[in-house]
Amino acid sequence: FKEPVRFEFEVDGESVISCDIDMGYTHRGIEKVAVERNFIQIIYLLERVCGICSFSHPMAYCLAVENAAEIEVPPRAKYIRTIIGELERLHSHLLWAGVAAHEIGFDTLFHYTWKIREKVMDYLEVVTGNRVNYAMLTIGGVRRDITGEQIPALKEALNYYSDLYSRTAEILLDDMSIRMRSEGVGILTYDQAVDLCAVGPTARASGLAKDVRVDYPVGAYPDMDWLKPVTPGDLGKEPAGDVYDRFIVRVLEMKQSINIINFCLENMPEGDIVTEPNANKMINSLKKIEGDGIGRYEAPRGEVAH
Questions:
Q1: 264 in Cβ contact with 23 (< 8 Å)
Q2: Strands 137-138 and 141-142, how do they pair?
Q3: pLDDT, tens digit, for every residue of 148-204?
Q4: Which of 4, 182, 204, 260 is deepest in the core (most CB within 10 A)?
C-alpha cells in the first residue's frame, strides 16, 4: 500500500487477476488539523501531504485562497513559483523513472536516475534551504527571492540536465529491458482515460491532451504561447496508453521543464515577491473574507485541486 490507498492484488505470475482497493487505508487527519490552524500555518501542513509534491499541494491551496480573496500575485512571484514548480517536476519524473526501473529489476537504471536527481535537489536546497518541504509559498506570493547570486547555480543545474538529456532519454526509451517490460503493459486507452477522468502523464500517455498549465494557466505559464501538453505523438508514435508511453511523456516533460525554467530566468520581471509581507496583517484581512475559492495546479503526477 502507498499512503492513503491500499491495493490487494491476486496475481498469476506477472498477470493481475483481480484487485481490491481500500481507500483511506492510512488516515492522517490533515483536513481536521487544517481547520484548527490559520491561513498561513495551513501552507506548511499541506507541504506534508506528499513529499514528492511538497510544492504542488500548497500551491493549489494558495491559489484557492487568492481566488476567494481576489488577491493579485506580483509578476515576479509568479515566475519564481513557476521555476520552483518545474524543478519539482524534474525531480519527480526522475524519481518515478527510478522507481519504475527498480520494479522491473533494472536497479542499475534506478541508481543512475536517483544519482542525477541529486543535482535538482541540491539546487532546491540552495534557494529554499530544504531538499523537500521548501516553504517557498505564502498567500499572495513567495517567501524568498531568487537572487542574482543564485542564478549561476541554477543555470549550472540546467546545463547539467541538458548535457545528460540525450543519454538519459536513450536509456529510458531505447533500452531493450525497458521496452520488453513496459510495451503493451498496463494499457489505458484514450476512451478509458476519458471515462475514468485520468490526469497528468497517465492521461497524456493515452493521447488525452490535458494539462492544467495549458488549459487553466497560472504563474508564468500564460506568457508561454509555445507550451502544449506532451503526448507520445510528439515522438511520432501513436499513443498506446501503456507503461512505455508513460515513460515517453515523462522523458519529454523533463526537457520541457528545462525549457520553461530557462524561459522564466530570461524573462523574469523585477519587483515585489509578495502582495503583503506582514503575515499577521494578511491573516487578519483573510478572516474577513467570505465565499469560496478554487485552486488548480498541474502537479508532476497530475491535477491537484484545493
A1: no
A2: antiparallel
A3: 899 998 999 899 999 999 999 999 999 999 999 999 999 999 999 999 999 999 999
A4: 204
- What is the distance between the alpha carbons of residues 74 and 51, in angstroms, rounded to a whole number? 27
**270 in Cβ contact with 80 (< 8 Å):** no
Q: What is the pLDDT of residues 253-274, one digit of tens each?
A: 999 999 999 999 999 999 999 9
Residue with cell 515576479: 76
- Residue 198 buriedness (CB in 10 A; 0-12 / 13-18 / 19+): buried
Q: How many CB atoms lie within 10 A of CB 18?
A: 8
Sign of CA dihedral 210, 211, 214, 216: positive
Grid coordinates standing for 163? 548535457
Residue that has been written with the C-alpha cell 520541457 in this structure: 256
Burial class, 238, CB count within 10 angstroms (exposed 0-12 / middle 13-18 / buried 19+)? exposed
C-alpha span between 91 and 256 (Å, rounded): 13
CA distances from 100 to 15, 17, 93, 188, 265 (A): 17, 21, 10, 17, 32
Reduced to 3 states, what is the DSSP secondary structure of residue 36?
Answer: coil
Helical segments of the chain, H only: 30-34, 39-46, 56-69, 75-103, 107-128, 151-174, 176-182, 190-195, 200-205, 212-215, 243-267, 279-286
Give the integer Cα–Cα distance in Å for 267 and 290. 36
pTM score? 0.94
Tally of residues, the chain: 306
Largest pairwise CA distance in the chain: 60
